[in-house]
Design goal:
The structure holds two protein chains of two kinds. By secondary structure, chain A is mainly alpha-helical. Chain A has a single domain, classed as Up-down Bundle (Fumarate Reductase Cytochrome B subunit), CATH 1.20.950.20. Helix content of chain A is about 75%, strand content about 0%. Chain B is globular, with a radius of gyration of 22 Å. Classes of the chains: A mainly alpha, B mainly alpha. Chains A and B meet through helix 1, helix 3, helix 8, helix 9 and helix 12 of A and helix 2, helix 3, helix 5 and helix 14 of B.
């Protein structure tokens, strides 16, 4: 396999970053003419941070609304974050990056290896080999949990009458895409066949803008192609919510203080004249 | 309340009367739906997308997780799938996708986009007038998607092409021309106040005044005009309250309405109706502005006044206060003598008006008062009160006879919760709720009374 997979992945990542950034910027730039926080709500910044944190990390509103939805939703999102950490911050990745790279990037990687790895190893009391093993098993386990959560969400969409009635093609498409990505990932982990060191070099090289050939494994290729599809799909679909929709939401991020501090904006010229 | 099975189109036949051309003209709206309505509606839609982040964000980010599907009282009451908050928003969102997003423009139906057709327009008129902008769904949404924002935007788009309801338009017009929603002219306002003063004299033996347009008073009290029409006990209660405190106060015949139906039509009228209160307060030279017992009035007053028509720095306390906030403060200061036995024998529960709870933060004040003045106070089930309160089913311009079935359906979850409380009296500080509940109680054959919180407080005040 040559470099085209890496290049495609760069392209998809660019679409993702630019697309998502553009969407977020658009939200940020659209004015909020009135105070519309949900009450009771915090009047100070610290309170707002707690409110947003609660939504972002604990899905508090969802907890209030429906525990049988909160459970698979929260588990899936946590698993996804863990998988991402495993892929990019995985303890093995920097070491391979060191071996592959030169110059400044290598120096950076060496810091990660020489300082980061022993530190993490010391913390858990595991040797490097044990670490690799731990990484493999925990990654596969988290993948399996994510698959279970996604299946739960998919079944709920198919079987619960009200949710089925509001579901669109894109709702199923997003679930299936994620399912396939994680299933192919775990397939490589558990079914063997993949040169894991080559895969790690591929990820490390790609991250360091120094692409190396992809492993010649059809499942690996499929995994990466699906990831590309997901990256491109996110900015143009409901998955754009990974940009942190709650953070931008005036019902949640506004301080509930319209009577402590006059709220104005330049978008309404007649308001400005009322001020004068 | 248990969610019902889906009954497609169960509420599709509930239609508001449309405003007539004369009325529309008076409000500066197109007198009939123009031939190029589609283009005009999309232009307005585009404008709102660029001026309201709530609209754009909430159309973009919904993931159709379904958390809201069993939260709307109108869905619970009717079973119509379009009354699930997510589905209601999809009525607007499908057009947004088709006309304003890359995916919808490219893939159309595959991206769940839909053309703005006559049929879609009819759906809008039907279902965005079956939403009371009560915000209950928003409390349960992981992104804080607020259907009230979606409904307001949809109504604003419809208004821009001459589609508005008779009821809302009439009320807004009366607020602009007469000063209140019911249409009580100044002479009748004064007459009623005089009549109620006599009534108060009979009840209490005291000379209690209900002043009108009294310049230089300490407090301008802005009641919902219904307090001078059907809820006269509440009007008399304000009088007894201020009399007992020895505070000078007045109503204004120019701004004789707390409510703001402009909020249910469009931004321009929201602002214009709100303006009257600020002008009246400035003109009368009062030091405080106090809002009477009304739900959405409080939202408009506390959250929007300073932004739309402020600053209120001519007031000693430069912001609107709620009568119940005011009452709690003076009670804590020990300025009222209360005898709670006056309300003995009443099994009272409290209904949180949606706008007081979810858009105004008045939640504990009425409870503090009720605990002090009514031994028989009890709560309804926990998932139906405070910020999870159920709407009365008549807010945001739905308090009109032609959609009575919808109103009965919308109030059903609240009625069930009321029955669970075992109360005989429903205390509620909102004029819309006060008009809706008696009709609902009769419909559901429930023997119960509706009272204002101030009514009960006034009964307990010892002069």
């Amino acid at each position: 396999m040559q470099l085209w997979l890496s290049l495609l992945l760069y392209l998809a990542a660019a679409v993702f970053l630019i697309g998502l950034g553009w969407r977020l910027l658009n939200w940020l730039r659209t004015p909020v003419p009135l105070k519309i926080p949900l009450t009771p709500g915090p009047a100070d910044r610290r309170g707002v941070l707690w409110r947003l944190g609660g939504e972002l990390f604990a899905f508090r509103a969802l907890w209030r609304a429906d525990r049988s939805l909160w459970t698979p939703a929260w588990i899936f999102h946590v698993a996804l974050v863990l998988l991402l950490i495993g892929h990019f911050g995985g303890l093995e990745t920097p070491r391979f990056a060191c071996a592959t790279l030169g110059g400044m990037q290598a120096a950076f990687c060496r810091v990660a290896c020489d300082v980061g790895l022993p530190f993490a190893g010391g913390l858990t009391g595991m040797s490097m080999a044990q670490f690799g093993h731990f990484e493999d098993i925990s990654g596969g386990l988290v993948g399996a949990v994510a698959i279970a959560a996604l299946l739960w969400l998919l079944l709920r969409r198919l079987l619960a009458e009200r949710v089925r009635s509001i579901s669109t093609f894109s709702d199923y498409f997003a679930l299936l895409l994620l399912l396939l990505i994680i299933v192919t990932g775990n397939d490589m982990r558990f079914m063997g066949g993949l040169n894991i060191e080559q895969a790690r070099q591929f990820v490390a090289g790609w991250l360091a803008l120094h692409p190396t050939p992809a492993p010649a494994d059809p499942v690996f290729t499929m995994h990466i192609l699906l990831v590309c599809a997901l990256l491109i799909y996110i900015p143009f679909s409901k998955l754009v919510h990974i940009g942190g929709a709650a953070l931008f939401s005036p019902t949640l991020n506004q301080r509930n203080n319209p009577r402590q501090r006059r709220y104005t904006g330049p978008w309404d010229k007649t308001n400005a004249s009322a001020t004068a | 309340m248990q969610a019902p099975p889906l009954k497609p189109n169960a509420a599709a036949g509930a239609h508001h009367h449309r405003a007539n051309p004369t009325l529309l003209a008076a409000l500066g709206l197109p007198t009939e739906v123009p031939a190029d309505w589609r283009a005009r509606a999309l232009t307005k839609f585009d404008e709102l997308l660029h001026t309201r982040r709530s609209l754009k964000l909430y159309l973009d980010t919904c993931v159709r997780c379904g958390a809201c599907t069993d939260k709307c009282p109108f869905f619970l009451g009717t079973g119509d799938p379009n009354n699930m908050p997510v589905a209601r928003a999809e009525l607007l969102r499908k057009v947004y996708r088709r006309h304003f997003t890359a995916a919808g423009k490219l893939f159309g139906p595959l991206a769940a986009g839909e053309e703005l057709t006559d049929a879609v327009r009819e759906q809008w008129f039907t279902y965005f007038y079956q939403c009371t902008e009560c915000r209950r769904c928003a409390v349960f949404c992981p992104f804080g998607v607020d259907t009230a924002e979606i409904t307001m935007a949809a109504r604003e788009i419809m208004a821009s092409i001459g589609l508005a309801t008779k009821y809302v338009s009439e009320v807004v017009d009366k607020a602009h021309t007469i000063g209140n929603n019911i249409g009580i002219p100044e002479a009748a306002w004064r007459d009623t106040c005089r009549f109620l003063e006599e009534e108060l004299k009979e009840q209490t033996g005291a000379d209690i005044k209900l002043p009108v347009n009294q310049a230089g008073a300490e407090v301008l009290l802005v009641p919902p005009s219904a307090d001078l029409f059907t809820n006269t006990d509440t009007m008399m209660a304000y009088g007894k309250f201020f009399h007992a405190l020895g505070v000078s106060w007045t109503t204004s015949s120019y701004a004789s309405e707390a409510g703001n139906f402009g909020m249910f039509l469009n931004y321009e009228h929201l602002k214009k109706v709100n303006r009257r209160i600020v002008d009246a307060a400035r003109q009368l030279g009062v030091r405080r502005l106090v809002m009477g017992e009304c739900g959405h009035a409080w939202r408009a007053a506390q959250a929007f006044t300073d932004t739309l028509n402020g600053p209120l720095d001519f007031l000693e306390k430069p912001r609107p206060e709620h009568i119940l906030e005011y009452a709690v403060r003076v009670i804590r200061q020990g300025r009222l003598k209360l005898d709670k036995s006056a309300n003995d024998g009443l099994a009272v529960t409290y209904h949180d008006p949606c706008n007081l709870a979810r858009a105004g933060g008045i939640i504990e004040e009425p409870r503090e008062i009720l605990r002090l003045i009514a031994r028989g106070f009890r709560e309804m089930p926990a998932d139906t009160i405070r910020e999870k309160t159920f709407c009365c089913g008549a807010g945001a311009g739905l308090l009109t006879d032609e959609i009575m079935e919808t109103r009965f359906a919308g109030v059903k979850p609240r009625i069930e919760a009321f029955c669970a409380s075992g109360a005989t009296h429903l205390a509620v500080p909102c004029a819309i709720c006060k008009a809706q509940f008696p009709v609902a109680f009769e419909h559901y054959r429930i023997d119960a009374q509706v009272v204002g919180v101030m009514d009960l407080l006034a009964k307990a005040i010892v002069l």
